[in-house]
Specification:
14 helices; Butyryl-CoA Dehydrogenase, subunit A, domain 2; Butyryl-CoA Dehydrogenase, subunit A, domain 3; 386 residues; 49% helix; four-stranded mixed beta sheet; Butyryl-Coa Dehydrogenase, subunit A, domain 1; four-stranded antiparallel beta sheet
């Protein structure tokens, strides 16, 4: 029986071949300019990799989350940043599983071809953070449209997306039986909404990551853009969130392997006091620990993918995979920076760039503390802490 990595070697080889056309110098320049890697994302789109989850009948590859995770992993392992395009992968979960046949016919073929981009999902708000059931953005039905008012924050890639998934409250919190009810999911056509009730304000941040604050003021969304049934949006969006956490885990595994490859090579070549620094156990052991932790996180990634693709509950595994992989990649980043010494801070070595990029995943898309509280409550049965 082949292991998962061996099973997907053809995908790995193909993605690596594409990434070879975008070497470190390309990503270093994009980071320096705080630009969006248009050429890289276009190449991924044209090669069909960002349409991996879309069914073949709509022009996609009809692959599962397992294959999609390999694509994201390899982008990061090759020195890129899948954060610039991963939204199109995990946003598919909501549209594919809960969108109407008409919505899927309308959007999926154009997303698969690259005519449309679905790179953004607007959930987080300034006053609620990860307390999603307390979202204050409202969508009120008026005739043939919903009128949206509210504010979102840390919404990425809006400037480089045509469509966005939006979570808004359609029934006031005080009027629902369960706080997870009364929220709905919409497809927002950004080309029509920006400047017509939607204002986008970029947020400068420590990585080359286009993220924004959004302001909705009487923004009208056609009622036909409601996904599924009104009031069930929280349940629908969980598919997207579980896919997101699993894909982020794969990206962190790619980062971790990039750091380990770089620091291992450097430790063999760097000679101090007449011997390579990699001969010292003080250098060997931290790197070896990183290797062990990355491999362990990888196993949980595959389990999360297996359950997701089988349409079985996978919240626990998705959260655990994200926690383990983000922790492992951050430890690998620290080891790579430490053992490169001063050169680790030099842009030309790319360690400091990848160091900044992988640090994000201790915080987003869900913080490590929120994952621990999830496991404590839902796996261990401990009392809810908040």
């Amino acid at each position: 029986m082949r292991t998962a990595p061996e099973k997907f070697q053809d995908i790995r080889d193909a993605v690596r071949a594409l990434c070879a056309d975008f070497p470190d110098e390309y990503h270093r320049r994009i980071d320096h300019e705080r630009a969006y890697p248009v050429a890289f994302v276009d190449a991924l789109t044209q090669a069909g990799w960002l349409a991996a989850l879309i069914p073949q009948e709509y022009g996609g590859s009809g692959l599962g989350l397992a294959e999609a995770s390999v694509i994201m992993e390899e982008i990061n392992r090759c020195g890129g940043n899948a954060g610039t395009c991963h939204g199109q992968m995990y946003n598919m979960g909501t549209l594919l599983r809960h969108g109407s046949p008409e919505q899927q016919r309308r959007y999926l073929p154009k997303i698969a071809s690259g005519e449309l981009r679905l790179q953004s999902m607007a959930v987080t708000e300034p006053g609620t953070g990860t307390d999603t059931t307390k979202v204050k953005t409202t969508a009120v039905r008026r005739g043939g449209c919903y009128v949206v008012n509210g504010q979102k924050v840390w919404i990425s890639r809006v400037q480089h997306s045509d469509l966005m998934i939006l979570l808004a409250r359609t029934t006031p919190l005080a009027e629902v039986t369960k706080k997870s009810e009364g929220m709905s999911i919409f497809i927002v056509d950004l080309r029509e909404a920006i400047g017509r009730g939607l204002t986008v304000r970029p947020i400068a941040n420590m990585v080359s990551h286009d993220t924004n604050e959004l302001f909705f003021e009487n923004c009208e969304i056609p009622a036909e853009n409601l996904i599924g049934h009104e009031g069930q949006g929280f349940r629908y969006i969980l598919d997207g969130l579980n896919a997101e956490r699993t894909l982020i885990a794969a990206e962190c595994i790619g980062d971790g392997r990039w750091f380990i490859d770089r620091v291992t090579r450097y430790a063999k070549e760097r000679v101090v006091f007449g011997r390579p620094i990699g001969q010292n156990q003080g250098v060997q052991f931290p790197i070896a620990e990183c290797q062990i932790e990355i491999e362990a996180a990888d196993l949980m990634r595959w389990e999360a993918c297996r359950l997701f693709d089988a349409r079985e509950p996978c919240g626990t595994q998705a959260n655990m995979a994200k926690y383990l992989a983000a922790k492992a990649s951050w430890e690998a980043a620290n080891a790579a920076l430490q053992f490169h010494g001063g050169f680790g801070f030099a842009c030309e070595y790319d360690v400091e760039r990848k160091f900044r990029e992988t640090r994000l995943y201790q915080v987003a898309p869900i913080s490590t503390n929120l994952i621990l509280s999830y496991v404590a409550e839902h796996v261990l049965g401990l009392p809810r802490s908040f």
